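Hi V.,

You were right to ask for the full record rather than a summary. Here it is.
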Amino acid sequence: MSSTAPRISGQTAGPSLRATVEGLPDYVAGRRATDAKVAALASNESHEVPLPSVERVVRESISRINRYPDMAASALRERLALFLKVSPEEVAVGPGSVGVLQQIMAATCGPGDEVVFAWRSFEAYPILVTLTGATPVPVPLDQDENHDLDGMLAAINDRTRVVIICTPNNPTGTTVGQSQLERFVAAVPSHVLVVIDEAYVEYVGPHGIDSLGIFRTHANVCVLRTFSKAYGLAGLRVGYAAAHKTLAQGLRRVALPFGVSTLAQTAAIASLNATREIQERAAAVIEERSRVIQHLRSVGWHLPDSQANFIWLRADEELKKQLLDAFDRADILVRGYVEDGVRVTLADATTNDRVLEVLGDRATFDKR
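Predicted structure:
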C-alpha cells in the first residue's frame, strides 16, 4: 500500500495563518547553556536549586501525573488568598505570569482596543496585545530608564482598555514609587484596567510599593505575580493575579483548561510555606546586586538602580555588539536587545565576578 498522501483536486496550499499571526515578532528567549562551564545569565531565573521541601512534595506528586490537575487550582488559590489577604474568588492562576497576562488580554481586549505600556519593557506585551486584535501603544521610558507616567496618561484615550505598569521593569530593573503610582492610578479613567506586573517583587528592597493596598482601594487595579523568579519554579510554569471578583472570574473562564499542572500547584503551595527560605535567597541576590552595581559604577559604567535579579547596560548597537562578543568569549550568555542594550542576570558571587572581569573598565570598550 502506498504511503503517499492523496492529492486534493484544485488545492495548491494548506490553510493560511491569520495576517496578525504572520506579522508577529518571535518571542526571544534567553539562550540556553549546553556546557557546564557556560554561565547562563540570559534568562531571569533563579540560579539556586529547588528548596528541599519543595522538591520533596514534587517528588511525592509524581505518582499522580496520570490524573488531570485540579482545573480550579482550589488549594493553591486558597493558599494564595491567605498569603495576599484577599478572598479565593479574587485569585486567578495560570502558566506563569505571562500565561495569566494572556488571560487578562483575552478577557478584556479585542479589535479596536488599545493597551498602553512602557517601552522598553517585557517583550511579551506587544505580542499578547496584538494576538487579541488590539493595538499596542508603547510609551518610551524616560532618560533615567523609568516609566514616563505622564506620557502614559497622555496616551490613554477612549479606545484604551488596559495599562500595564511593570515594576521592577524588565529589562531595566527600575521601579515606580508608591506616591507616583497612587497618583497615576487615581488619574486613570475607572473603566481602564491597570495591571501592576510584579514578577520581580521579591527582589525589591525594604521600600517597595504596597500594590495590594492600591488594589484594595481601586476597582480597576489588578496585581500580577509569578513563581518563576525568586521562588525558582520557572520550569513548572505557575503565576497568579489578584483581581476583583468579576475580572478574576473572567480570567478563570478564558484560561487554558488544566493549564497549571498538579506538580506546579503543589510546588507553589510548598514555596509559599517556605517564605523564610525564599526571603533569605532573595536577600542574597539583593546583596550581590548592590556589590555588582557599586563596582561597575566605580569603573565608569552607568547603571540604573535595579531592584530585580539582573542589571541593565544601556548600549547602542556598536557597544552592544562589543559586549555580546566579550561575554561570548568568556562563555557567559547574556541577553541583548536591538538598539537598546544588554541585560545580565545575577547569579552566585563567583559567576558575578566573571561578569565584572568581562566588563572591566568602561573606558576600555571605547578604545576597541
